[in-house]
Amino acid sequence: MRIDAVEVRRVTLPLRFPFETSFSRTTTKQFLLVSVSADGLVGHAECVADADPFYLPETNVTALHVLRDFLVPMAFALEIGHPSEVLPAFSRVRGHEMAKAALEMAVWDLWARRDGVPLWRALGGRGGEIRAGVSVGLQKDDAALLEAVEREVSAGYRRVKVKIKPGRDVALVEAIRGRFPRLPLMVDANSAYTLREADHLAALDRFSLTMIEQPLGWDDIVDHAVLQKRIETAICLDESIRSADDARRALEIGACRVVNVKVGRVGGLSGALAVHDVCRARGVPVWCGGMLESGVGRLANVHLQTLPGFTLPGDTAASERYFEEDLVDPPVVVSGEGTIEVPEGPGIGHAIVWSRVERASDFHETWRRP
């Protein structure tokens, strides 16, 4: 298969409610929508980079530059025998996993559409349904947080994650546990702490948390290994894991006991499969993190989570939780039992509503194979 053309649109969707972490407060989701054409068909994917470099170094601007000037010309030169060949073909470009993932995931979607199969089947997963978890951002006070958690539990979510930061952590978790003593609960620090605060983080051990996600430096595994020896709660690594080798190294030194797999952070679906396989071989559970994706990226995450190593509910909430109007029809829906039905249609399985895409886009560029 030879790629004939690549289209990129910059899309901005307003969030229904602000989403706050230890490092930023978000009211809109801006992203690049990448479409790849070949053999008369088109595949689509979402670049999960943000407008700012506060989560990881990439941004929409850097991703557009790397796609236009490096990755797309490389992709045009490929004779693709399978989507798994795309990510290794980009190895000369160091880093820029989110840009790579956007192009690679579009090829996977195109490949599945060409074969007339759902993406999960192309990935080697299964049909049926997946369990849904949800991420709750920082709120104005504990009362507002408890109200938000109550709302998500009532909606059926199987696991709740709450954001924490220094000054908004132990008392906050204690309040949640007092109201929901049996709720599967985890916390996410987004690198807000240092190893000097190990004793403070150990105070979370008494709340029977499923895990604490990325408490220390965004690119660290060594200090996390030290911390994991000093606390009982399982550490989950997110930002630190950008490849299967990163996962292997982290597990070898005991830096974590759980791994969050975000497709964009590891270079695409092939990178996600590789991390999944490394962890599964070591008996380490993985789950799928979210990046406030539209339905395009959200559905790709749904398909990925049908692989056997994804034994914990991911951050794949319903479309309506974030957007008044998603880009796909039907939207992603979570049942009252906290599950999401895995689509059976070709590729990601739901139709993109292009009139909505056009209304939300402020940039559109097409590159064609020479």
Explain how this protein is built.
By secondary structure, this protein is of the alpha/beta class. The protein has helices spanning 60-76, 86-89, 97-115, 119-123, 142-154, 170-179, 198-202, 222-230, 244-252, 269-281, 295-304, 354-360; strands at 5-20, 25-38, 41-47, 129-131, 133-136, 159-163, 185-188, 212-213, 235-237, 258-261, 286-288, 328-329, 339-341, 351-352, 361-368. The protein starts with a strand and ends with a strand. Helix 1 packs across helix 3, helix 5 (142-154) packs across helix 6 and helix 9 (244-252) runs parallel beside helix 10 (269-281). The strands form four sheets. The chain has a seven-stranded parallel sheet, covered by helices on one side. A four-stranded antiparallel sheet has the order 3-2-1-15, with helices on both faces. It has twelve helices and 15 strands. Helix 7 (198-202) links the parallel strand 7 (185-188) and strand 8 (212-213). Helices cover 33% and strands 22% of the residues.
